[in-house]
Amino acid sequence: MRTKFSKDEELIMLHTILDNLREGINVVDEKGTLLFVNKASAYYAHSTVQGMVGEHISKFYPKAALIEVLKTKRSLLDVKIEHDDGRKYIVNAVPLIINEQFRGGVATFRDVTEIEELSQKLESLEIELALSKVNDAFDPIIGKNESLKEAVIKAQRAIGSPGGPRHAIIVGESGTGKTMFVKAMYYFAKKIGVLSPDAPFIEVNCAQFTNPDIAAIEIFGSEKGAFTGAVEKRGLLELANGGMFFLDEAHALEHYQTMLLKALETGKIRRIGGRKEIDIDVIIVAASTKNLKNVLLPELYQRLAQYEIKLPPLRERPLSEKEQLLKCFKENYEKRAHERYKIKLKVNFSNAAKGILLNAYYPRNIRQFRDIVNASIDAAVPIISDINSKSEVSALIDIDNIPFDLLECEDRCESEELEPVHIISENVENDEEVLQKIILRLRKKGLGPRKISNILKEKGFKIEYYQVAYKLKKLDVD
User: Fold this and answer.
1) Are 128 and 264 in contact (CB under 8 A)?
2) Contact 296, 250 (CB under 8 A)
């Protein structure tokens, strides 16, 4: 027999369900004021439900997808957003419509930082393998003789200084290749004898921890009884002794910066809750997506920034380097297909697709460029169940294979003040053909000439709505 609930009981049941979901939930009114927040969202924001309700969402989530929903009154689905604390979320945000009236927005999101970290660790292992096979550790780095020439020279001087190796800070946006660059420094140090062949390389991303206390325990270690449940544990700095320690997102150390400063000045550390001083000899390279000069203690910044090495964002790198990156991504895709499934894959790009991929704006830089390229290839090649083992497969990547929606969503949500996305290259031989394909694709989505014109203008095309209408008529499209 079905149990009946009163309206109040149903409301209590609904709140119980929402509060115990692992996904965060935010509900805002049309002005962006939080009307409802569940426990998971409050946890992610390092706040409380009571402390968030009634406040503007930007106070806790400055890059919230709901801010865009309030502007456009359109849904944003499966958007990846990286917040200032380094945590990464997959977000679904939709308009809140009540009685056919727009009343705000609802967002559900989950933290994927740890998943991203695992993916980056696998990527890091691949980088190590590639660097260990070359004579010059900086050879695999695209741009070593162009946009990254100064960075490479500084890195070599930091490691190879006759007065002893220096600590360094790597400055660069997310996805600019900081991890690969630091590992190149590590292999360079081993090659020239600054580090022994078996010297350790230890990497830690401080932003992966939910609070700085946990980060400090991991980095400095702990003594048994230092706090409830504490056990004797060697810290990562101890494990890095005699080698290199890569401290990514170093700003997340917060009030434990003084412990790192002492380690740099004295060459000694103490575990959390310990009294014994432990000698360490470590080359420390710090990095962050923030400006460390503004967030680190001045003394700590001075000690770390003996060499400040800047890696440019992808948008500032020359077209020739982007073409090399595109070629590298393509060859890696083909290599994996052969290694994993014995498939001989040959991938090519049409001029139009190549022009769009090379000239799109990628807020997350090289990593996002690679992911978009891989997704474009995925869309063009058959799945493995449709390919005979050891088959030879050719694939041509064209405009229709590029995930425009993914590019548009990520561009919109990363920042409110983005440069226009010029998706057509001067090298593309037939821009008219490209334009027609994009117009047809947008028309198939149900968009009219005015909307198509506005979207194309945002992407760098100069075309009025009547010109779109004329082209549609010429193409015999209703």
Assistant:
1) no
2) yes
β-bridge partners, 101: 98
Please state the pTM of the whole predicted model: 0.66
Write the pLDDT tens digit of every residue in 20-62: 888 899 999 999 999 999 999 998 888 999 999 999 999 999 8
What are the DSSP calls for 224-287, one per residue?
A: TTSSTT---EE-HHHHTTTSEEEEETGGGGGGGHHHHHHHHHHSEE--BT----EE---EEEEE
pLDDT digits (tens, 9 = 90+) for 325-347: 999 999 999 998 988 888 899 99
Tokens 């939080």 map to which residue? 34
Residue 308 forms beta bridges with which residues?
169
Burial of 142 (0-12, 13-18, 19+ CB in 10 A): buried
The tokens of 100 are what? Answer: 């056919």
Tell me what percent of the residues of the chain surpass a pLDDT of 70: 87
C-alpha of 142 from chain center: 19
**CA atoms in the 13 A half-sphere facing the CB of 250:** 30
Give the whole-angstrom CA distance, residue 470 versus residue 472. 5
For 173-239, the DSSP string reads -TTSSHHHHHHHHHHHHHHTTSS-TT--EEEEEGGGSSSHHHHHHHHHEE-TTSSTT---EE-HHHH
Identify the three-state secondary structure at position 307.
strand
C-beta separation of 192 from 159 below 8 A: yes
Q: At what angle do helices 465-474 and 431-444 cross, to 10 degrees?
A: 90
